[in-house]
Amino acid sequence: MAVLFLVGGQGTPSVAAATSPPRGAMGVVCYVTEQTSGAKYAKPAYLDKYRVIALDASNVTEKGRSGRLYRLHYGIDIFKLSTVSYQITDEKTGEKLSNFALSEGDLVIADRAYGTINGVAHCINSAANFILRLRTNCFAVWDENGEKVDIAARFAKLGCGEAASFKGLVHMPDGGVKPIRICAHSKNEAARCESEKRLRHTANKKGYKLADETIQFNEFVVVATSLPDNVTDAQVMDAYR
Hints:
- The chain is α+β, with helices and mostly antiparallel strands.
- Strands 1, 2, 3, 4, 5, 6, 7, 8, 9 and 10 form a ten-stranded mixed β-sheet that branches.
- Strand 6, helix 2 and strand 7 form a beta-alpha-beta unit.
- The chain is globular and about 55 Å long.
- The protein starts with a strand and ends with a helix.
């Protein structure tokens, strides 16, 4: 499937053949950039002071007999639909936020591959804000008493479509401790069933037992953010979606 990637300082297009149909943030980035290049969309007031960047990566295959596999790491300003950053590496280079240069005023939005403590540290060290989706086995979050927080349990009473958050502490790679805000949105029944179906398919394919805590965690969309309290929980989740 040919997908148009806008790359280069002036948004110069090049075409690469994707190894699979667009999916997740990167798929949306590619498709929307292809369909609506040059368009701009109204930014909500609560995000007005930020350059809102969606970051992701996708494998691309070189045309010709070699079929060499590369990985495109791509960042787009989601309201201007303009390229912010890109880097082409071999497929061994993992998806991590340190692949991108960030700066003060940036608001990074990225999926679960980037929701790591190293990713959080890179944003903080770059003075950038972030909304990063978390997976079940993400970094530990601690309360003010030094107890590890059960993230899914904190959101267990959320009704369908409701959003909430709590504040916690995380231990940084350099040994420091930083505050963090964890937000979640409760999925509807259809989304929960589809999520569990995908999880069970992956577990069966890879030959492991699906843990109960993984099923419970995936009843929610959970993100870590550095946005201030005047940005509501619902607004944080809307920004991620």
